[in-house]
Design brief:
213 residues; alpha+beta; Beta-Lactamase; 2 domains; two-stranded antiparallel sheet; DNA-binding; DNA-binding transcription factor activity; Helix-turn-helix domain-containing protein
Length: 213
């Protein structure tokens, strides 16, 4: 540190870097040890970063990078969408349903990329920017499920009628993308999701994760 630099800002940036390097978040105690400062300092840093949506804390108290980090660069969302579009387009055309990439934004699930199939007579209208609670809909539930399952067993989540009457959804979480929580899924007008859709969504989520690394 020199006379021209800010110790508080330096610590805040170090917090963000530490959180960006972990998939599971860090506790206040863990951050305190890594930074070499007391817990009170860490609490103040996290509270300030949370106000700007740069950090969020889950129900277990673990701090993670917030989606506000993405908003710092206006080009980030377009870059994320661009990286995800090939896999989403392939998924939508293969399944014949609307495919989407959804990221965590605070306590909500936020659709950041959507591709509709080109050959179907009808499909669910689903738009980028649509948000809903994490505990409703396949996209959010897949993300919550990934927080409790081992990384090698992500699985997929199926729902029906939670966001739109008559619509069913399937989603699988993004894994291995540092600092980003999200899922890839499809939504269709059907009473149930065909058996092959779940594994296909898992494959698409893996493709998107590879493109974002």
């Amino acid at each position: 540190m020199t006379a021209e630099t800010s110790q508080t800002l330096d610590r805040g940036l170090r917090v963000l870097k530490l959180l960006a390097d972990t998939d599971h978040g860090l506790t206040v105690t863990e951050l305190s040890h890594k930074l070499g400062v007391n817990r009170t300092v860490v609490y103040r840093l996290l509270a300030t970063l949370e106000q700007h949506a740069l950090v969020r804390r889950d129900l277990g108290g673990r701090a993670r990078v917030g989606l506000g980090v993405l908003r710092l660069g206006r080009q980030v969302h377009p870059l994320v969408r661009e990286a995800a579009l090939p896999a989403l387009r392939s998924l939508a055309e293969d399944i014949g349903a609307t495919a989407h990439l959804t990221l965590v934004d605070g306590s909500d699930a936020l659709a950041v990329a959507v591709v509709e199939p080109s050959w179907t007579d009808y499909h669910v209208a689903y738009r980028a920017g649509f948000r809903h609670p994490l505990d409703r809909g396949a996209a959010g539930r897949a993300i919550l499920s990934a927080r409790q399952k081992p990384p090698q067993d992500p699985g997929y989540t199926l729902t029906h009628g939670e966001l739109e009457a008559g619509a069913s959804g399937a989603a699988a979480p993004l894994l291995g993308v540092t600092g980003v929580e999200g899922s890839v899924g499809v939504v269709m007008l059907a009473d149930s999701v065909p058996e092959r859709v779940g594994p296909r969504v898992v494959d698409a989520a893996r493709e998107v994760a590879d493109a974002l690394r």
